[in-house]
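Note on ligand handling. Small-molecule inputs were canonicalized before submission; formal charges were left as drawn, and no protonation-state enumeration was performed. Where a ligand contained multiple stereocentres, the stereochemistry in the source SMILES was retained. For S-adenosylmethionine, this procedure yielded the string shown in the input block below.
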Amino acid sequence: MRIARAGTASSKTQQKVSRPESSRARLPAVQTAVPSSPVLPFNQILIGDCVERLEHLPAESVDLVFADPPYNLQLEGALSRPDQSVVDGVDEAWDKFSSFSDYDSFTRAWLTAARRVMKPDATIFVIGSYHNIFRVGTILQDLGFWILNDIVWRKANPMPNFRGRRFTNAHETMIWAAKSAETKSYTFNYEALKAGNEDCQMRSDWFLPICTGTERLKNDDGGKVHPTQKPEALLARVILSASHAGDLVLDPFFGSGTTGAVAKRLGRSFIGIERDTAYAKAARDRIAEVTPLPETAIAVAPSKRSLPRVAFTEVIEAGLIAAGDILTDAQRRHRAMVRADGTLSLFAAGQCAAIIGSIHKIGALAQGLPACNGWTFWHLEKNGALAPIDEMRGQIREAMQAAE
Ligand SMILES: C[S@@+](CC[C@H](N)C(=O)[O-])C[C@H]1O[C@@H](n2cnc3c(N)ncnc32)[C@H](O)[C@@H]1O
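Structure output:
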């Protein structure tokens, strides 16, 4: 597969990036040497500082970024539970910064580097807590990103506040941003998310458990391999929301490889960057165990907007509904007659009234509403049962698709 890209904002050169056909099937590799040519290392874990590593990737080459950067937790000393056992918190050197301005410089550097490798329509998710997310948000906006949502990950099983001096810290925040305000055609699988959510729009508050049980990577001594391993369900929702199968997902703070494991399972490619070789090895071993789901299980259901448009007259022309047929709503409270030109005439007080209009307009008028989807509102009686006229539209669509 060859990927064409349009060049960076500063240089308008066209460049092509080659991708070997077999690269998606390969096991993830760990790459330590920085390559001199800008070749996309599909499904690889790059070892090193993400700012430096990102500078060696081709511009405008990734479809989605998920970043779980150091939070700069500023923990002061060990935290104990009431029974005096010590809480296994985040005390690693990689999470420590000498000052807020030091943290801001680091954030500005990696976000700038990540933005360069994002395709014009790519988006980025950055997760954080109250310690860092406000600083990250400001810097995202200062660098020209365009914030689309802030998503609250509400933890089903948060750690209690042992000292009883504050509210239980029960959520983290993810900022979802487009590369710029001009980004209009970014990926958002709205219909698929809605279909998987009881046909309700997916909300910006996500209720998910933290990573525990068998999903948590453990050392031989039973300790955590990584202190901040994210739950796969969180990454699955991110990736399913904002990418397509075959897309390339970048994670510049790869840790235990949660992004890579989920990307592989969902038929996406990934590039991970991680400074710590032990984490990178754990990630590589973890990803090698993942089996991608079959294509039928990951293909996004076609959105209603992508289905071919069908006019009501076409349903009449196909002989599925005849001029003169009477349509009703599902509760048989309203009736309208089908006219030869594809409009409806509303029955009022038993009489065919002089109110004529489209299936949508007459449906809205019948209910006294500003708008109505006539396809799902109006039904045709056939053999004693009511069928929504949307079923007849479906038959026409099937015939159209079969003819393509
Ligand atoms: C919050 S953790 C990410 C955890 C990961 N999301 C997971 O599920 O395992 C941040 C990771 O970034 C790595 N890291 C910190 N600074 C880095 C840098 N400048 N370049 C590359 N990796 C870095 C740390 O070693 C750590 O593993």
